[in-house]
Specification:
The chain is an alpha/beta fold. The chain has one domain: TIM Barrel (Alpha-Beta Barrel), CATH 3.20.20. The protein contains 13 helices and 9 strands. The strands form 2 sheets. The protein has a 7-stranded parallel β-sheet with strand order 1-4-5-6-7-8-9. The protein has a two-stranded antiparallel ribbon with strand order 2-3. Strand 8, helix 12 and strand 9 form a beta-alpha-beta unit. The chain is globular, with a radius of gyration of 19 Å. The structure holds coproporphyrinogen III. Coproporphyrinogen III (CP3) binds next to loops.
Length: 344
Protein backbone atom coordinates (compact mmCIF):
# COMPACT_ATOMS: atom_id res chain seq x y z
CA UNK A 1 0.00 0.00 0.00
CA UNK A 2 1.17 3.50 -0.86
CA UNK A 3 1.42 5.93 2.04
CA UNK A 4 -0.70 9.09 1.82
CA UNK A 5 2.46 11.03 1.03
CA UNK A 6 3.38 8.65 -1.80
CA UNK A 7 -0.16 8.87 -3.19
CA UNK A 8 0.02 12.66 -3.10
CA UNK A 9 3.47 12.81 -4.73
CA UNK A 10 2.57 10.25 -7.42
CA UNK A 11 -0.35 12.48 -8.41
CA UNK A 12 1.85 15.58 -8.23
CA UNK A 13 4.14 13.90 -10.78
CA UNK A 14 1.18 13.15 -13.05
CA UNK A 15 0.90 9.43 -12.40
CA UNK A 16 -2.35 7.46 -12.47
CA UNK A 17 -3.34 6.06 -9.07
CA UNK A 18 -6.45 4.14 -8.00
CA UNK A 19 -7.28 6.69 -5.30
CA UNK A 20 -7.37 10.49 -5.12
CA UNK A 21 -5.48 12.47 -2.46
CA UNK A 22 -7.06 15.53 -0.82
CA UNK A 23 -6.14 18.63 1.12
CA UNK A 24 -8.13 21.86 1.42
CA UNK A 25 -7.04 25.50 1.14
CA UNK A 26 -7.35 27.11 4.63
CA UNK A 27 -7.87 23.65 6.13
CA UNK A 28 -6.58 24.99 9.46
CA UNK A 29 -9.00 27.81 10.11
CA UNK A 30 -11.96 29.34 11.79
CA UNK A 31 -14.57 26.71 10.78
CA UNK A 32 -12.72 24.28 13.08
CA UNK A 33 -13.51 24.45 16.85
CA UNK A 34 -10.10 22.94 17.65
CA UNK A 35 -8.44 25.83 15.79
CA UNK A 36 -10.58 28.45 17.55
CA UNK A 37 -9.59 26.98 20.91
CA UNK A 38 -5.87 27.48 20.20
CA UNK A 39 -6.61 30.86 18.63
CA UNK A 40 -8.17 32.10 21.93
CA UNK A 41 -4.66 32.15 23.40
CA UNK A 42 -2.85 33.87 20.53
CA UNK A 43 -3.44 36.61 18.00
CA UNK A 44 -3.20 35.34 14.40
CA UNK A 45 0.36 36.71 14.04
CA UNK A 46 1.53 35.17 17.33
CA UNK A 47 0.00 31.86 16.37
CA UNK A 48 1.81 31.80 13.03
CA UNK A 49 5.12 32.85 14.61
CA UNK A 50 5.09 30.42 17.55
CA UNK A 51 6.28 27.13 16.03
CA UNK A 52 4.65 24.79 18.62
CA UNK A 53 1.27 26.51 18.25
CA UNK A 54 1.50 26.78 14.44
CA UNK A 55 2.46 23.08 14.32
CA UNK A 56 -0.54 22.18 16.45
CA UNK A 57 -3.06 23.87 14.13
CA UNK A 58 -1.23 22.64 11.01
CA UNK A 59 -1.58 19.05 12.26
CA UNK A 60 -5.25 19.36 13.28
CA UNK A 61 -6.89 18.76 9.84
CA UNK A 62 -4.56 15.82 9.19
CA UNK A 63 -5.36 14.27 12.56
CA UNK A 64 -9.09 15.10 12.61
CA UNK A 65 -10.11 14.38 8.99
CA UNK A 66 -7.23 12.33 7.60
CA UNK A 67 -6.02 14.86 5.02
CA UNK A 68 -3.25 13.52 2.76
CA UNK A 69 -1.22 16.72 3.03
CA UNK A 70 -0.57 19.39 5.65
CA UNK A 71 -0.13 23.00 4.54
CA UNK A 72 1.84 24.87 7.12
CA UNK A 73 0.02 27.52 9.08
CA UNK A 74 1.40 30.89 8.03
CA UNK A 75 0.47 33.78 5.75
CA UNK A 76 1.61 35.16 2.40
CA UNK A 77 2.14 38.68 3.77
CA UNK A 78 4.87 38.06 6.38
CA UNK A 79 7.43 38.50 3.59
CA UNK A 80 6.50 42.22 3.50
CA UNK A 81 7.29 42.98 7.17
CA UNK A 82 11.12 43.09 6.86
CA UNK A 83 10.69 45.71 4.11
CA UNK A 84 9.65 48.10 6.85
CA UNK A 85 5.93 47.40 6.56
CA UNK A 86 3.74 47.28 9.64
CA UNK A 87 1.28 44.38 9.23
CA UNK A 88 -1.82 43.68 11.34
CA UNK A 89 -4.70 41.20 10.99
CA UNK A 90 -8.27 41.87 12.09
CA UNK A 91 -8.95 39.24 10.67
CA UNK A 92 -8.12 40.62 7.20
CA UNK A 93 -4.69 42.23 6.79
CA UNK A 94 -3.92 45.94 7.09
CA UNK A 95 -0.62 47.39 6.00
CA UNK A 96 1.15 50.60 6.92
CA UNK A 97 2.43 52.55 5.08
CA UNK A 98 0.87 51.67 1.71
CA UNK A 99 2.94 51.97 -1.43
CA UNK A 100 1.56 55.10 -3.08
CA UNK A 101 4.49 57.04 -4.48
CA UNK A 102 7.57 55.91 -6.42
CA UNK A 103 9.95 57.54 -3.84
CA UNK A 104 8.91 54.89 -1.33
CA UNK A 105 10.45 52.18 -3.50
CA UNK A 106 14.01 53.12 -2.46
CA UNK A 107 13.08 52.36 1.15
CA UNK A 108 12.56 48.67 0.38
CA UNK A 109 15.79 46.72 0.81
CA UNK A 110 16.67 43.15 0.10
CA UNK A 111 17.15 41.12 3.30
CA UNK A 112 18.36 37.79 4.67
CA UNK A 113 15.32 35.51 4.39
CA UNK A 114 16.67 32.85 6.79
CA UNK A 115 17.23 35.51 9.40
CA UNK A 116 13.87 37.31 9.12
CA UNK A 117 11.54 34.47 8.10
CA UNK A 118 13.34 31.54 9.72
CA UNK A 119 10.29 30.93 11.94
CA UNK A 120 8.54 29.49 8.86
CA UNK A 121 11.34 26.91 8.42
CA UNK A 122 10.97 26.08 12.12
CA UNK A 123 7.24 25.41 11.64
CA UNK A 124 8.03 23.06 8.74
CA UNK A 125 10.59 21.12 10.78
CA UNK A 126 8.40 20.75 13.86
CA UNK A 127 5.40 19.86 11.66
CA UNK A 128 7.35 17.05 10.00
CA UNK A 129 8.18 15.64 13.43
CA UNK A 130 4.52 15.84 14.45
CA UNK A 131 2.88 14.37 11.32
CA UNK A 132 5.59 11.78 10.59
CA UNK A 133 6.96 10.66 7.23
CA UNK A 134 3.73 9.36 5.69
CA UNK A 135 1.87 12.66 5.13
CA UNK A 136 2.82 15.18 2.45
CA UNK A 137 3.77 18.68 3.58
CA UNK A 138 3.29 21.91 1.63
CA UNK A 139 4.98 25.25 1.97
CA UNK A 140 3.75 28.36 0.17
CA UNK A 141 4.20 32.01 -0.75
CA UNK A 142 2.19 34.75 -2.44
CA UNK A 143 2.98 35.52 -6.07
CA UNK A 144 4.71 38.89 -6.56
CA UNK A 145 1.66 40.47 -8.23
CA UNK A 146 -0.71 39.47 -5.42
CA UNK A 147 1.78 40.68 -2.78
CA UNK A 148 2.06 43.94 -4.71
CA UNK A 149 -1.75 44.37 -4.56
CA UNK A 150 -1.65 44.14 -0.75
CA UNK A 151 1.41 46.39 -0.56
CA UNK A 152 -0.56 49.06 -2.45
CA UNK A 153 -3.35 48.92 0.13
CA UNK A 154 -5.76 46.22 -1.03
CA UNK A 155 -8.20 45.38 1.75
CA UNK A 156 -11.54 45.00 0.01
CA UNK A 157 -12.10 43.95 -3.61
CA UNK A 158 -12.79 47.55 -4.58
CA UNK A 159 -9.20 48.54 -3.57
CA UNK A 160 -7.85 46.57 -6.52
CA UNK A 161 -7.66 49.92 -8.36
CA UNK A 162 -4.68 50.99 -6.19
CA UNK A 163 -2.17 48.49 -7.60
CA UNK A 164 -3.52 49.19 -11.08
CA UNK A 165 -3.09 52.94 -10.71
CA UNK A 166 0.47 52.54 -9.45
CA UNK A 167 1.50 50.22 -12.29
CA UNK A 168 -0.09 52.48 -14.93
CA UNK A 169 1.51 55.66 -13.57
CA UNK A 170 4.87 54.30 -12.40
CA UNK A 171 5.67 51.16 -14.42
CA UNK A 172 9.44 51.30 -13.75
CA UNK A 173 9.10 51.71 -9.99
CA UNK A 174 6.42 48.98 -9.98
CA UNK A 175 8.70 46.58 -11.85
CA UNK A 176 11.48 47.28 -9.35
CA UNK A 177 9.24 46.26 -6.45
CA UNK A 178 7.99 43.17 -8.32
CA UNK A 179 11.63 42.20 -9.00
CA UNK A 180 12.55 42.47 -5.34
CA UNK A 181 9.49 40.43 -4.29
CA UNK A 182 10.49 37.81 -6.87
CA UNK A 183 14.03 37.34 -5.60
CA UNK A 184 12.84 37.25 -1.97
CA UNK A 185 10.18 34.67 -2.89
CA UNK A 186 12.73 32.40 -4.60
CA UNK A 187 14.91 32.31 -1.48
CA UNK A 188 11.85 32.01 0.78
CA UNK A 189 10.59 28.92 -1.06
CA UNK A 190 14.09 27.42 -1.29
CA UNK A 191 14.33 27.79 2.48
CA UNK A 192 10.96 26.04 2.92
CA UNK A 193 12.01 23.17 0.64
CA UNK A 194 15.30 22.78 2.53
CA UNK A 195 13.23 22.62 5.75
CA UNK A 196 11.20 19.70 4.36
CA UNK A 197 8.33 20.98 2.18
CA UNK A 198 7.49 18.31 -0.45
CA UNK A 199 5.69 20.81 -2.68
CA UNK A 200 5.39 24.60 -2.57
CA UNK A 201 2.28 26.43 -3.74
CA UNK A 202 2.36 29.96 -5.13
CA UNK A 203 -0.89 31.86 -4.47
CA UNK A 204 -1.73 34.43 -7.14
CA UNK A 205 -5.19 35.18 -5.81
CA UNK A 206 -5.60 38.53 -7.58
CA UNK A 207 -4.00 37.85 -10.98
CA UNK A 208 -7.33 36.59 -12.35
CA UNK A 209 -8.66 40.15 -12.22
CA UNK A 210 -6.17 41.12 -14.95
CA UNK A 211 -6.75 40.75 -18.69
CA UNK A 212 -4.54 38.17 -20.33
CA UNK A 213 -2.23 40.87 -21.76
CA UNK A 214 -1.89 42.49 -18.33
CA UNK A 215 -1.28 39.09 -16.75
CA UNK A 216 1.56 38.52 -19.21
CA UNK A 217 3.08 41.91 -18.37
CA UNK A 218 2.58 42.31 -14.62
CA UNK A 219 2.27 38.86 -13.13
CA UNK A 220 3.42 35.98 -15.30
CA UNK A 221 7.10 36.96 -15.82
CA UNK A 222 7.68 37.11 -12.06
CA UNK A 223 5.90 33.83 -11.36
CA UNK A 224 7.89 32.32 -14.22
CA UNK A 225 11.19 33.39 -12.66
CA UNK A 226 10.25 31.79 -9.35
CA UNK A 227 9.09 28.58 -11.01
CA UNK A 228 12.16 28.34 -13.26
CA UNK A 229 14.55 28.83 -10.31
CA UNK A 230 12.79 26.11 -8.30
CA UNK A 231 12.54 23.69 -11.23
CA UNK A 232 16.29 24.10 -11.78
CA UNK A 233 16.66 22.62 -8.28
CA UNK A 234 14.21 19.82 -9.19
CA UNK A 235 11.54 21.01 -6.71
CA UNK A 236 7.77 20.43 -7.09
CA UNK A 237 5.74 23.59 -7.65
CA UNK A 238 2.00 24.30 -7.58
CA UNK A 239 0.21 27.49 -8.66
CA UNK A 240 -3.21 28.82 -7.64
CA UNK A 241 -4.93 31.68 -9.45
CA UNK A 242 -8.49 32.66 -8.56
CA UNK A 243 -10.69 33.50 -11.59
CA UNK A 244 -8.21 31.94 -14.00
CA UNK A 245 -10.59 30.80 -16.78
CA UNK A 246 -9.21 33.28 -19.34
CA UNK A 247 -5.56 32.69 -18.35
CA UNK A 248 -5.20 28.95 -18.94
CA UNK A 249 -3.31 29.30 -22.25
CA UNK A 250 -0.71 31.37 -20.41
CA UNK A 251 -0.66 28.97 -17.45
CA UNK A 252 0.10 26.14 -19.92
CA UNK A 253 3.38 27.92 -20.74
CA UNK A 254 4.50 27.98 -17.10
CA UNK A 255 6.64 25.07 -15.96
CA UNK A 256 4.54 24.32 -12.85
CA UNK A 257 3.82 20.70 -11.89
CA UNK A 258 0.39 21.40 -10.41
CA UNK A 259 -2.27 23.96 -11.28
CA UNK A 260 -4.99 24.63 -8.72
CA UNK A 261 -8.27 25.39 -10.51
CA UNK A 262 -10.89 27.77 -9.06
CA UNK A 263 -14.53 26.67 -8.83
CA UNK A 264 -15.81 28.72 -11.78
CA UNK A 265 -13.66 26.86 -14.30
CA UNK A 266 -15.10 23.44 -15.25
CA UNK A 267 -12.53 20.68 -14.71
CA UNK A 268 -13.37 19.33 -18.20
CA UNK A 269 -12.15 22.65 -19.64
CA UNK A 270 -8.99 22.68 -17.45
CA UNK A 271 -8.17 19.12 -18.63
CA UNK A 272 -8.43 20.25 -22.24
CA UNK A 273 -6.29 23.37 -21.72
CA UNK A 274 -3.63 21.91 -19.38
CA UNK A 275 -3.20 18.29 -20.51
CA UNK A 276 0.39 18.10 -19.23
CA UNK A 277 -0.22 19.38 -15.70
CA UNK A 278 -1.46 17.80 -12.54
CA UNK A 279 -4.77 19.46 -11.71
CA UNK A 280 -6.01 20.33 -8.27
CA UNK A 281 -9.49 21.48 -7.32
CA UNK A 282 -12.18 22.57 -7.56
CA UNK A 283 -15.30 22.13 -5.42
CA UNK A 284 -17.15 25.41 -4.94
CA UNK A 285 -16.45 26.45 -1.32
CA UNK A 286 -20.03 27.83 -1.07
CA UNK A 287 -21.43 24.31 -1.68
CA UNK A 288 -19.76 23.32 1.59
CA UNK A 289 -22.43 25.42 3.36
CA UNK A 290 -25.32 23.25 2.15
CA UNK A 291 -26.70 19.91 3.29
CA UNK A 292 -24.16 17.08 3.42
CA UNK A 293 -25.89 15.25 0.53
CA UNK A 294 -25.14 18.17 -1.77
CA UNK A 295 -21.46 18.14 -0.78
CA UNK A 296 -21.28 14.40 -1.51
CA UNK A 297 -23.11 14.68 -4.85
CA UNK A 298 -20.87 17.46 -6.21
CA UNK A 299 -17.70 15.84 -4.87
CA UNK A 300 -18.57 12.60 -6.69
CA UNK A 301 -19.24 14.50 -9.91
CA UNK A 302 -15.71 15.98 -9.83
CA UNK A 303 -14.18 12.58 -8.97
CA UNK A 304 -16.01 11.03 -11.97
CA UNK A 305 -14.86 13.79 -14.29
CA UNK A 306 -11.23 13.31 -13.18
CA UNK A 307 -11.19 9.50 -12.85
CA UNK A 308 -9.36 8.99 -16.17
CA UNK A 309 -6.91 11.88 -15.71
CA UNK A 310 -3.34 11.16 -14.61
CA UNK A 311 -2.41 13.52 -11.78
CA UNK A 312 -5.36 14.80 -9.76
CA UNK A 313 -5.46 16.19 -6.23
CA UNK A 314 -8.84 17.06 -4.72
CA UNK A 315 -9.24 20.53 -3.19
CA UNK A 316 -11.77 23.34 -3.03
CA UNK A 317 -11.74 26.08 -5.67
CA UNK A 318 -10.69 28.61 -2.97
CA UNK A 319 -10.28 28.65 0.80
CA UNK A 320 -12.86 26.98 3.03
CA UNK A 321 -15.36 29.50 4.46
CA UNK A 322 -15.42 30.05 8.24
CA UNK A 323 -19.17 29.19 8.32
CA UNK A 324 -18.62 25.66 6.91
CA UNK A 325 -20.07 22.89 9.12
CA UNK A 326 -17.37 20.49 10.34
CA UNK A 327 -19.55 17.50 9.29
CA UNK A 328 -19.33 18.67 5.69
CA UNK A 329 -15.53 18.65 5.78
CA UNK A 330 -15.69 15.12 7.15
CA UNK A 331 -18.18 14.09 4.42
CA UNK A 332 -15.94 15.63 1.75
CA UNK A 333 -12.78 13.82 2.86
CA UNK A 334 -14.61 10.50 3.38
CA UNK A 335 -16.21 10.74 -0.08
CA UNK A 336 -12.85 11.36 -1.76
CA UNK A 337 -11.13 8.58 0.20
CA UNK A 338 -13.98 6.14 -0.37
CA UNK A 339 -13.95 6.57 -4.13
CA UNK A 340 -12.06 3.91 -6.05
CA UNK A 341 -11.30 4.59 -9.68
CA UNK A 342 -11.86 1.85 -12.21
CA UNK A 343 -8.58 1.99 -14.12
CA UNK A 344 -8.53 1.04 -17.77
O1 LIG B 1 -4.40 27.10 3.88
C1 LIG B 1 -4.03 27.00 5.07
O2 LIG B 1 -4.70 26.40 5.95
C2 LIG B 1 -2.68 27.57 5.45
C3 LIG B 1 -2.66 28.88 5.99
C4 LIG B 1 -2.92 30.10 5.11
C5 LIG B 1 -3.44 31.31 5.66
N1 LIG B 1 -3.38 32.27 4.69
C6 LIG B 1 -3.90 31.47 7.04
C7 LIG B 1 -4.81 32.58 7.39
C8 LIG B 1 -2.64 30.33 3.76
C9 LIG B 1 -2.15 29.36 2.68
C10 LIG B 1 -2.92 31.72 3.51
C11 LIG B 1 -2.68 32.36 2.20
C12 LIG B 1 -3.18 33.72 1.98
N2 LIG B 1 -3.20 34.77 2.86
C13 LIG B 1 -3.69 34.19 0.74
C14 LIG B 1 -3.77 33.40 -0.55
C15 LIG B 1 -4.88 32.43 -0.55
C16 LIG B 1 -6.26 33.04 -0.66
O3 LIG B 1 -7.01 32.89 0.31
O4 LIG B 1 -6.58 33.62 -1.69
C17 LIG B 1 -4.05 35.54 0.91
C18 LIG B 1 -4.66 36.44 -0.13
C19 LIG B 1 -3.73 35.90 2.27
C20 LIG B 1 -3.87 37.22 2.94
C21 LIG B 1 -4.84 37.13 4.06
N3 LIG B 1 -4.56 36.61 5.31
C22 LIG B 1 -6.21 37.49 4.04
C23 LIG B 1 -6.93 38.10 2.86
C24 LIG B 1 -6.72 37.18 5.32
C25 LIG B 1 -8.13 37.40 5.81
C26 LIG B 1 -8.95 36.31 5.23
C27 LIG B 1 -10.06 35.85 6.07
O5 LIG B 1 -10.43 34.68 5.83
O6 LIG B 1 -10.56 36.58 6.93
C28 LIG B 1 -5.69 36.62 6.08
C29 LIG B 1 -5.80 36.11 7.48
C30 LIG B 1 -5.67 34.65 7.62
N4 LIG B 1 -4.68 33.90 7.02
C31 LIG B 1 -6.48 33.78 8.42
C32 LIG B 1 -5.94 32.48 8.29
C33 LIG B 1 -6.39 31.22 8.98
C34 LIG B 1 -7.67 34.20 9.29
C35 LIG B 1 -7.12 34.78 10.55
C36 LIG B 1 -7.73 34.37 11.85
O7 LIG B 1 -7.68 33.19 12.24
O8 LIG B 1 -8.22 35.26 12.53
Amino acid sequence: MMTQRELFLANARGEKTDRTPIWVMRQAGRYLPDYLKVREKYSFEELAKTPEAATEVTAQPVEIFGMDAAIIFSDILFILEPLGIDLKYNPGPTIHPFLQSPDQVDMYHDYDVEDKLGFVADVLRTTRQRIGDDIAMLGFCGAPFTLFCYLCGLQKTKDFDKAYTFLLKHPKAGAKVLDLLTSLSIRYLQMQIAAGADVVQIFDTWAGDLSEAEYRAWAMPYTQRIVDALKRDGSMVSLYIKNSYHLLDSVAELNVDIFSVDWKTPMAYAKEKLPLKTLQGNLNPYLMLGPKEIVIEHTKAILEEMADYPGFIFNLGHGILPTTPVENMRALVDTVHGYEKVLA
